[in-house]
Amino acid sequence: MAYTPHTEAEVRAMLEALGLERLADLYAHLPASLLDPEIELPEPLDEDGALALVEELAAMNRPGKVFLGGGVRDHFIPAIVDTIASRGEFLTAYTPYQAEASQGVLQAIFEYQTMIAELTALDVANASLYDGASALAEGVLLALRATRRMHVVASRGVHPEYRQVLGTYLEAVGATLEEVDLEGDRTPVLEVGPEVGAVVVQSPNFLGAIEAYAGLAEAAHAAGALLVAVVDPLSLAVLRPPGEQGADIAVGEGQPLGNPMSFGGPHFGFIAVKKGLLRQLPGRLVSMTEDAEGRRGFVLSLSAREQHIRRAKAKSNITTNAQNAALRATVHLAALGPLGLKEAALAAAANARRLYELLLEVPGVEPLTRPPFFVEFALSLPRPPEEVRRVLSEVGFHGAYPIPEYGERAALFAATERMSEDDFYAFARAFFQAVGG
Prior knowledge:
The protein has helices at residues 8-18, 32-35, 47-59, 79-85, 103-120, 132-147, 160-173, 214-222, 323-359, 385-394, 421-434; strands at 65-66, 124-125, 151-155, 176-180, 196-203, 226-231, 249-253, 269-273, 284-290, 296-303, 366-367, 376-380, 397-398, 401-402, 410-414.
């Protein structure tokens, strides 16, 4: 049976009300090239030909060794992550509403929340958000609701794209954003005014430098503001967590935990807060409880979004969580455990330091990031980074991510635990040629 949302009589009545004769008249103001464009399609293929074409296209998605920085990296993913995350009962990006039929997914979310809270040393985490940038925006809006102030101070050590997203969110609610320059490669301790509701810092920051922000947290709290820390989840296996440095809210991008780089996603964002901010937490929260017979169970206990409460009282308009990507992180963390995660973080950091030293041996290359850093670092190159990146890609490497905000010749690099000594020397030779050595 055809799906006809409107009868012919209803369509005629609408056209009469608009003073039109045909449906096509609704679109008469559009250029003809948009109304009926010429589409060049290839000849149809049989099944075997279609499969061959798909395989050819898929072969293009093998980028080789990736030394790009920018917060998304090629970390090791245990095979069990794909196995568990692709099971039928988990193949959803949505949060279940019927607890009696969804205990497995609800338990997985509860375990995820617990792990994020432990990593950040904060009291509670929600069921995940879309990505690191939106997680930062939600975390800052949470801080503004809690402090009842509308001014935000953010370090330029925070990822530039995160700051762009944050600015968009703040403009929509009438809040203002002030960006603070770095001193060298790190954020200075600021004087926080009484109008500030949130102070934002990132560690490791966008240049890779590890920042100690306990002093910044003290300055924020003394002025009645909250500190929002953007963190790399893998770094928390070896660095002092945000909760122990005075952060009220921790946010970040979860891709380093069990999710491939892909070509831009899907990833997930995480957010964790102190207990006193629980009622301001966006998204969903899964809790553990007992049923009437005393059996353990899991339920959605807090959903402060506009689908569940009056729109004016909603904490966020995000209507779902990135469940499958967050599940992958949960399995990844469970598979590695605290010791395995620490080993991966230390190996990645050691590899980054080795790469840093090799690249600095190339004439004309200068450091923009000074130790200590984690797995990413910035260099000033003797040639435009765009040219260097292009030459590297021609020989099977990806590196030199241009960061013009930090200098015309500035570029990011990264290493992970997956790189070998042979990889480093091969990349260093290619880099030497790319910069004109």
